[in-house]
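User: What would this chain look like folded?
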Amino acid sequence: MRPGSDGAVLLDGRGTVVVGGAGRMSFLQNLVTNDLRLLDTQAAIYAALLTAQGKFLHDFFIVEQGETLVLECEGGARAEDLARRLSTYRLRATVEITVRPSVTVWALPSEADFPADLKDSALVYPDPRHAGMGRRALMAQDLIPLSTPGDFDFYDRRRIALCLPDGSRDILPEQDTVIEAGLDRCHGVSFTKGCYVGQELTARLHHRGLAKKRLRAIRTALDFPPWGADIRLKDGRLAGTMRSSCGDAGLAMLRDDLTDALWAEGIFIPV
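Assistant: Here's the prediction, encoded as structure tokens.
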């Protein structure tokens, strides 16, 4: 590991939406892509909220804290949008939905014990997407979990190499589907829980193999194109679009029928 890479990494741009009330479990169970009953046996789950047509809106981690469910999500305007969209489904459900702005999110890639003096001040849980991503911690803004902060680029490159999307950096809201983005590979989609918003398209894409593009981890010896740029074959055919990148690793949404041709050209190779 690089020096400091095993320290806690501050994840800027993250936030939390808190869902409380007696009906919180059934409320979210009927909306999100994953099965909240998994919280009976694991500390956190990864899930998404979709449009009625099955297109991506938000992804988040869900963890229980007392009598609430905390959704760790993209922060700022994105957290506000998530809370607003959830509120449209509230109707007569006995839930309260609030954005909690005074929380910071840290990634803890190291297996070292979390500092004992901060355990009572933090909500710590394993990253449910992949064991290689370590743990995450929600803390008050004025607390720093370790004396030597880790390297964000080290964290981000690891995430990219594992082909784990980072919200709207990698999944276009109201355009991409969670199957194209690989949330099923990240333990973010249940195919046994029953109905939720956008479930019909999601199940059809998965069971019938109908997705024609997918998020892939790629490498290059050159500079990556900027975020959102077209990736084209030498003959001009559009092979996909660039998403997030860090160093020599990046994510791109690529057409299945053109990936072999893209690898053959040698500019980009799969991770």
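The first strand starts at residue 9 and ends at 10. If you want, I can go into more detail on any region.
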